[in-house]
Design a protein that fits this description.
heterodimer, A: 329 residues, mainly alpha, MetI-like fold, 0% strand, B: 330 residues, alpha/beta, 8-stranded mixed beta sheet, 4-stranded antiparallel beta sheet, globular
Chain lengths: 329, 330
């Protein structure tokens, strides 16, 4: 009889030749390889990346085209305030036309507007999903008193009329933020809006994750990890999280456009960002008044919104499929 | 040939595990206590396979999980390699974990569906921060080879394997840290009979090769008879009888063991038709409210007044044959 150490540590014999051909790949590498094969996901990822890059590079693009989001171009409007020329006044100088009534350049408005819109949507989605993930895993995995306390608190928040709260409290809170010198004007309003969205936005996802963590922690693979001596942190990060990411990604790709439009709604209601700054929501709200006379003013921003939302959703689907071990093969 | 030394590797002394049963809801008031394991004493020697049998719900899985400290025992001692680990916390337990491993019943839920086979088998190295001399990847592939899997399959996911192959992955994971004792919690009951034989034989071979000791929890008596050197019979959280396999299967002394053995079908129609079966009446009593006296008295055909009043202690009826019964069989 040989000792266990001898058997396990013995020199590899004939088997060593083919062993070198297979490389040990982590699930992450496998997922990336699978993602690269999904053409739709790659395309939508590129589209989403393009829009984000445009938002990021808005000052550069406007500088090259010699446009400004706040400057008016009265020479492009006729005596009724309508853009001169076909399709909302599209010309070499104004590639997407001009704003009816005031006469600002639409491209510049949308570029600068997307910075605010994307920032709000991204920050709120990521923060609220991160919070939901943290709280959901904690209450699902540790159960007990923490779960009971947090669960009742989230019930309380869910029962709260959040929309009215935002409308009622945004002005005093904005003033408070300004008084504390955190941000000014629109910056302060954005800070307040994001805080509200996150504060009232994490519960649904937390509940979803909690229920998944609850069922997952009873599975034998968690017990196997415990039997190997894994810490709680390792079990959460290495055993539970890989099973929860797909849910988070689907939820993210749904909540990004959700918050994108929520920001528009609150800007429309006068709670969010105010003119002269522009967001996609503000532009759309304004465009509704002109939809008969200048349909392109409504169609261009809404078309862009659709493309962004669609590409984010498809990207989310692609990432989820890539992470699914049963994806293909 | 494998040798069983007289050295005790694991000993359970008066091991008890009670679960609190709560009503749930906001106040979580306690409804009762489930006596899953009640005063269980037995030992496993180095190189030995001990079979732990009993019907569903008798606490055999709980014994296994308590012994690897997945549950904290309510009372009693667990002595592993001379150390009393019953009060050890997670941190103190960690270095011992590599010597004391577990194989799980359901190969479909014991492997994380989002990890590759390589990651799963490697996890022991990762948790303990060790890198074997030949490198982790090489070590993982050798383990896969050892359990009869293709070493090239390290990048595959569990769902690409059959039940028997998955169980082999679970075994490879348990073997990674070179344990001296493996607690196998019904490792074959979720598998087809043909695959059961393969896995049981694999466990047998590994024992011979690596000098492992097993605590083999099962309810399938023929499997237990095949693999075990000694058998412990449990009923409602208590040990009824324990003896060497040969002795227990030929000369059971406890009425419960006798009834249990009579339930094993004989693969010979003539014998099967004429053999006497003992059919127990009634159901397994609730472990929340076990019968007084001997826990088996409600279903025992020999039960008398004494059985309802006095709890029978485990005693040695013949050398290395212990039973807990007032009126043993001959």
């Amino acid at each position: 009889m040989s000792k266990p150490s001898e058997v396990l540590e013995k020199e590899p014999t004939s088997a060593s030749n083919f062993k070198d051909q297979v490389e040990l790949r982590s699930p992450k590498q496998i997922a990336w390889a699978r993602f690269k094969r999904n053409k739709v996901a790659i395309a939508s990822g590129l589209v989403a990346l393009f829009f984000v890059a445009c938002a990021f590079l808005a000052p550069v693009i406007c500088g090259i085209l010699n446009l400004s989001p706040t400057k008016t171009y009265p020479e492009t409007l006729d005596e009724f305030g309508m853009p001169i020329g076909a399709i909302g006044g599209i010309s070499a100088a104004h590639p997407l036309g001009v704003e009816p009534g005031v006469g600002r350049d639409l491209l510049a408005m949308l570029l600068y507007g997307s910075r605010i819109s994307f920032t709000v949507a991204l920050v709120t989605s990521v923060t609220s999903i991160g919070m939901g993930m943290l709280i959901g895993i904690a209450s699902g995995y540790f159960k007990g008193k923490f779960d009971a306390t947090v669960g009742r608190f989230s019930d309380f928040l869910l029962a709260f009329p959040a929309t009215f709260m935002i409308v009622a409290l945004s002005l005093p809170l904005t003033q408070r933020v300004e008084a504390l010198n955190i941000a000014k004007d629109n910056g302060a309003r954005i800070v307040v809006l994001i805080t509200f969205f996150v504060f009232f936005g994490w519960m649904g996802f937390a509940r979803l994750i909690r229920s998944q963590a609850l069922s997952m922690r009873e599975r034998d693979f968690v017990m196997a990890a415990q039997a190997l001596g894994a810490s709680n942190w390792r079990i959460i990060s290495k055993e539970l999280l890989p099973n929860l990411w797909p849910t988070a990604i689907v939820f993210l790709s749904l909540s990004l456009p959700g918050f994108l439009s929520a920001e528009s709604v609150f800007s429309f209601l006068g709670v969010g960002v105010q003119a002269p700054a522009s967001t996609w929501g503000l532009v759309l709200a304004d465009a509704i008044t002109y939809w008969k006379e200048v349909p392109s003013y409504l169609l261009i921003p809404s078309g862009m919104l659709i493309v962004v939302v669609l590409s984010l959703n498809l990207l989310g689907d692609g990432v989820r499929d890539a992470l699914d071990p049963k994806g293909d093969r | 040939m494998r040798s069983i030394s007289s050295e005790v590797i694991l000993e359970a002394r008066n091991l008890t595990k009670y679960f609190k049963s709560t009503a749930g809801g906001a106040f979580n008031r306690q409804k009762g206590v489930v006596k899953a394991v009640d005063d269980v004493t037995f030992e496993v020697h180095k190189g030995e396979t001990v079979g732990l049998v009993g019907e569903s719900g008798c606490g055999k899985t709980t014994v296994g999980r308590t012994l690897v400290k997945l549950y904290d025992p309510t009372s009693g001692d667990i002595i592993f390699q001379g150390e009393n680990i019953s009060k050890f916390n997670r941190k103190k337990m960690k270095p011992l974990r590599s010597k004391l491993q577990m194989i799980f019943q359901d190969p479909y839920s014991s492997l994380n569906p989002r990890h590759t086979v390589g990651t799963i088998v490697e996890s022991g190295f990762d948790i303990h921060g060790v890198t074997p001399a030949q490198g982790r990847k090489q070590a993982v592939q050798e383990l896969l080879e050892l359990v009869g899997l293709n070493p090239e399959h390290i990048n595959r996911f569990p769902h690409e394997f059959s039940g028997g192959q998955r169980q082999r992955i679970g075994i490879a994971r348990a073997l990674a840290l070179k344990p001296s004792l493996i607690i196998a919690d019904e490792p074959v009951s979720a598998l087809d009979v043909s695959i059961q034989a393969q896995v049981v034989n694999l466990l047998d071979d590994l024992q011979r090769e690596l000098g492992l000791s097993y605590l083999f929890v099962a309810h399938d008596l023929s499997v237990v008879q095949h693999i075990s050197d000694r058998v412990v019979v449990m009923y409602l959280g208590k040990i009824m009888e324990q003896a060497a396999t040969e002795e227990l299967f030929t000369k059971p002394r406890h009425p419960y063991t006798k009834a249990l053995l009579s339930a094993v079908p004989v693969p010979d129609p003539k014998v099967e038709r004429t053999r006497e079966r003992i059919i127990l009446k009634g159901d397994l009593p609730s472990p929340m409210n076990p019968p007084s006296g001997c826990v088996f008295n409600t279903r025992c055909w020999k039960a008398q007044e004494k059985c309802r009043v006095e709890v029978p202690a485990l005693y040695e009826i013949s050398p290395k044959h212990q039973i807990a019964c007032h009126f043993p069989e001959n």
